[in-house]
Design goal:
By secondary structure, the protein is of the alpha/beta class. It has helices at 18-29, 48-58, 99-104, 107-110, 157-166, and strands at residues 11-15, 37-41, 73-77, 87-92, 116-121, 134-142, 145-152. Helix content is 24%, strand content 24%. Helix 1 (18-29) crosses helix 2 (48-58). Bound molecules: adenosine-5'-diphosphate and magnesium ion (MG).
């Protein structure tokens, strides 16, 4: 992974439970626009998939599965949401066999998804291939749960939004992304 110091000031939150991790993901979901990529970085069991599920749910995905084990990638239709994210691409590069695999799934297109957003677990398995814009979310084990650090990949308006929107928001804040 690129040095975290290169990213605009990350916001670090502590999650005490899988539900809290999903809540944080819902808050992150409302910052996203079509074309954004979310890199999910952390050890096995740190909460990457839990976060991906929460993010997908906030965008209207109802049938999220644990991990795209054999295919590296699953594509989910998002429900109608106001920003026009139609598809959530979930990639898990844990079992990546090399650059050939990346090319066979068309990885570079997932780094600039024109129809929605991409969520990438184990992005460090694809060294040197980074999206132009999006978020790096870093998960660490801490005594009372998990720390979740959210940083923008570029010093763009998303970076400003991370700083503004993720600080000091009550944990039970609901995000309504679906038209209703
Ligand atoms: N605060 C927390 N956030 C997320 N998961 C947690 C937390 N506390 C405990 N867990 C547990 O840790 C595991 C995380 O699994 P998962 O999200 O699949 O991790 P990863 O995709 O990083 O391997 C689950 O079994 C979950 O119940
Ligand atoms: Mg996982």
């Amino acid at each position: 992974m690129p040095d975290r110091g290169t990213f605009a000031a990350p916001v670090t939150l502590v999650s005490h439970s899988p539900d809290e991790t999903r809540d944080i993901a819902r808050r992150v979901a409302r910052l996203l626009r079509p074309g954004d990529v979310v890199l999910l970085h952390g050890d096995l069991g740190a909460g990457k998939t839990t976060f991906a599920q929460g993010l997908g749910a906030a965008l209207g995905v109802t049938d999220f599965v644990q991990s795209p084990t054999f295919t590296l990638v699953n594509d989910y239709a998002a429900a109608v949401n106001p920003v026009g994210i139609a598809v959530v691409h979930h990639l898990d590069l844990y079992r990546l066999a090399g650059d050939g695999d990346l090319d066979s799934i068309g990885y570079d297109a997932y780094l600039a998804p024109d129809d929605g957003v991409s969520l990438v677990e184990w992005p460090e398995r694809a060294p040197g291939r980074l999206p132009a814009r999006g978020l790096l979310v870093t998960f660490d084990f801490v005594a009372d749960g998990r720390s979740i650090a959210v940083a923008s990949i570029a010093a763009d308006e998303l970076a400003d939004q991370v700083a503004e929107s993720l600080r000091d928001i009550p944990q039970d804040d609901e995000i309504k992304t679906n038209a209703s």
